[in-house]
């Protein structure tokens, strides 16, 4: 079985407190609680990576085909948490963080083809320890900038010594081509400090369309090579 890469540990620090101390919104105790809570989300990422690794190996053995190119994971930083809560007008508290943010733990699953994205979501939906809470299908309905991907909020139990805790994880499924495009778009927005020239925005949108066309053509070739074998499924 593929051994999932370790999720980097969350440093036990009161970063959220240090960032917002001037507001008086957090006490020292709560700052420490935020760090402990983020460790719980780290454990949830490790759980989901293991589940995906098992699914990946099962499909590879049964179909002689690996649907996952690679997986990355991250925990939202205290600074990013605070900025997002502030931007959305929510209180800067532990309870507010738990209630209002679904992407504290995030995973990116890069698939070879579009059909792999839908297949993995379908298989995960049958997993007894995974509850799919919401799905945003940006493949069927792309974002205005042309981005296509499948974003799901899932919940999985984290079993600790004293109890089990349900924890939410955001999973973004993308193809290789769309992940390359999204990386370029991110770098572009960073380079221009989010004020990207209109002409460049149009080029990025066109590039997203070309990436999707490439996805479809490559999958059609893949199916021809496999002799019309459609076991990989689809939408």
From TrEMBL:
Coiled coil: none annotated. InterPro entries: GTP_Pyrophosphokinase, NT_sf, RelA_SpoT. One of its GO terms (biological process) is guanosine tetraphosphate metabolic process. Keywords: Kinase, Transferase. PANTHER family: GTP PYROPHOSPHOKINASE YJBM (PTHR47837), GTP PYROPHOSPHOKINASE YWAC (PTHR47837:SF2). Residues 73-196 form the RelA/SpoT domain. This is GTP pyrophosphokinase family protein. Gene3D superfamilies: Beta Polymerase, domain 2, Nucleotidyltransferase. It comes from Propioniciclava coleopterorum. One of its GO terms (molecular function) is kinase activity.
């Amino acid at each position: 079985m593929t051994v999932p890469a370790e999720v980097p540990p969350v440093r036990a620090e009161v970063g959220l407190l240090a960032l917002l101390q001037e507001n008086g919104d957090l006490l020292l105790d709560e700052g420490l609680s935020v760090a402990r809570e983020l460790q719980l989300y780290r454990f949830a990422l490790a759980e989901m990576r293991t589940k995906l690794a098992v699914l990946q190996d099962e499909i590879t053995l049964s179909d002689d085909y690996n649907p996952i190119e690679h997986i990355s994971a991250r925990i939202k930083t205290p600074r990013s948490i605070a900025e997002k809560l502030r931007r959305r007008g929510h209180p800067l508290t532990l309870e507010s963080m738990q209630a209002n943010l679904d992407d504290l733990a995030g995973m990116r699953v890069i698939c070879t083809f579009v059909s792999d994205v839908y297949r993995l979501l379908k298989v995960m939906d049958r997993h007894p320890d995974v509850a799919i809470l919401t799905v945003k299908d940006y493949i069927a309905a792309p974002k205005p900038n042309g981005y296509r991907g499948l974003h799901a909020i899932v919940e999985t139990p984290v079993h600790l010594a004293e109890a089990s805790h349900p924890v939410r994880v955001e999973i973004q499924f993308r193809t290789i081509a769309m992940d390359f495009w999204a990386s370029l778009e991110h770098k572009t927005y960073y380079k221009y400090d989010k004020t990207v020239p209109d002409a460049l925005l149009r080029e990025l949108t066109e590039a997203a369309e070309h990436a999707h066309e490439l996805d479809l053509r490559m999958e059609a070739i893949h199916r021809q090579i496999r002799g019309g074998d459609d076991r990989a499924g689809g939408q």
